[in-house]
Amino acid sequence: MKNLFEHSFNDHLRRSAPLAERMRPRTLEDFEEQYGVIGAGTPLRRAVENDTLSSVILHGPPGTGKTTLARVIAGMTKSHFETINAVMAGVADIRRVVEEARERLTLYREGTVLFIDEIHRFNKAQQDALLPFVESGLVTLIGSTTENPLFTVNRPLLSRSRLYRLEPLSREALVRVMRRALNDTERGLGNYRADMEDGVLEYMAGVANGDARAALNCLELSVMTTPPGEDGVRRIGKELAVEACGGRVLQFNREDEHYDAVSAFIKSMRGTDPQATLYWLARMIYAGDDPEFICRRIMIHAAEDVGLADPRAIMVAVAAAQAVERVGMPEGRIIMAEAALYVALAPKSNSVVMGINAALKTVRDEQATAVPRHLRDGSFFKLERIAGNKTVNEYKYPHDFPGHYVKQEYLPENVVGSEFYTPSASGEEKEIRLLLEKLKKYGK
């Protein structure tokens, strides 16, 4: 009687589950895209089909199929499949799974595949507790995470697992997913006779931003909240879809998509592409990125990639940071855009960063020698006189000479002749290059 009740309860849960849950792919053939991960002939596809899976960690944005892929593997493997959620599980749960896996292997020669959803929520101690059993092969691990595992999963566990990144689904793939749900009478919305106006599914796919779960949730809400007409058909236009789905939600994973977007922003400024610069700036602003962080990146870029080719770039970047702090958002977006465009369109030179890096390398690698006597602080000569030494300060004061310049050595003996800063021929550094060439000839 209990089993009958449980079966009836579980069947009710399946029927009342959200559309996204009901429409999960059941086979590898049902998967949309992810060809590089699970496409025909890929290592993971062959391992799943041959039931020779080794430990893997699936990572990527929400709604790309990580949990679904684990469930498909569960249906295809001959091993016992165990699932735990890192949010609710602890070391005690790991020990239980391991003990049962050991017993299963000893008595029945049956392996265990352990799926840990949101594995990034496991702390170091929990991950360390799992490591020996993954290493010995007692359990085969499938971990899933929306965060970059390089930042959130222990190195030893990473080294014993294959990493697979699932990408956001294309708009076309999301439209196909929603059409299947509209036509499916068993698991989907096929019994509701929904008529979607042209462009509505494409709008929903755009709002979902690569997330199949978000697209199906949007579709379900639109259909279920639209009353049928006299003919029993639920007609869903753009306005209804907008009301049901709202605007696009764009959020960055702090260790992954966020830094990818920042990288694209910086590289667009470095590449003198104003259109891409504004696009990636808008992506970061729309996702709610910290304006202070964005301004900091513009300032760094102004020094690193523009430098003395246009010394005003750093001034503009600093002024923008101060202005954004005073003005706030949303008006601050205009100030950040102006600064980013100025830096993007400025002549480029990395001579400053190359120079300081070269100087730091020399300081690190060469034995430090004393500061040349003529460059030492005046107190040195006072002490010499007090000690009775007749030391002459041979420092030449440049302002005492024509053009406010006199040739003398400023480097210590062991690095005399070293050149750290080499101006480029870009922007105002052309004039600096001419100046240094002129000074080199001075006094010869």
Please give the alpha-carbon distance between the first and last residues. Answer: 105 Å
Query: Radius of gyration in whole Å, from Cα?
Result: 32 Å
What is the CATH architecture assignment of the largest domain?
Answer: 3-Layer(aba) Sandwich
| Quantity of strands, as a count | 7
Q: Level of helix content? A: 40-55%
- Beta-strand proportion: 5-15%
CATH superfamily of the largest domain: P-loop containing nucleotide triphosphate hydrolases
Q: State the order of secondary-structure elements, H for helix, E for strand.
A: HHHHEHEHEHEHHEHEHHEHHHHHHHHH
At the fold tier of CATH, the topology name of the largest domain is: Rossmann fold
Report the oligomer. Answer: single chain
Cross-sheet strand order for the largest sheet: 2-3-4-1-5
Gross geometry = flat
Q: Given the structure, what is the number of helices?
A: 21
Spans with pLDDT under 50 lasting ≥5 residues? Answer: 4-10
Q: Taking all residues together, what is the mean pLDDT? A: 86
Described by strand count, sense and barrel closure, the largest sheet is: 5 strands, parallel
Class by helix and strand content?
A: alpha/beta
CATH classification class of the largest domain: Alpha Beta
Number of domains: 4
What would you say this structure looks like, in words?
- The protein has 444 residues and is α/β, with parallel strands linked by helices.
- The chain has four domains: 132 residues, 3-Layer(aba) Sandwich (Rossmann fold); 75 residues, Helicase, Ruva Protein, domain 3 (Orthogonal Bundle); 89 residues, Zinc Finger, Delta Prime, domain 3; 81 residues, post-AAA+ oligomerization domain-like (Orthogonal Bundle).
- It has 21 helices and seven strands.
- The strands form two sheets. The protein has a five-stranded parallel beta sheet, sandwiched between helices. A two-stranded parallel sheet has the order 6-7.
- Strand 3, helix 7 and strand 4 form a beta-alpha-beta unit.
- Helix 6 runs parallel beside helix 7 and helix 12 packs across helix 13.
- It is flat, with a radius of gyration of 32 Å.
- 30% of the residues are buried.
- About 2% of the residues have low confidence.
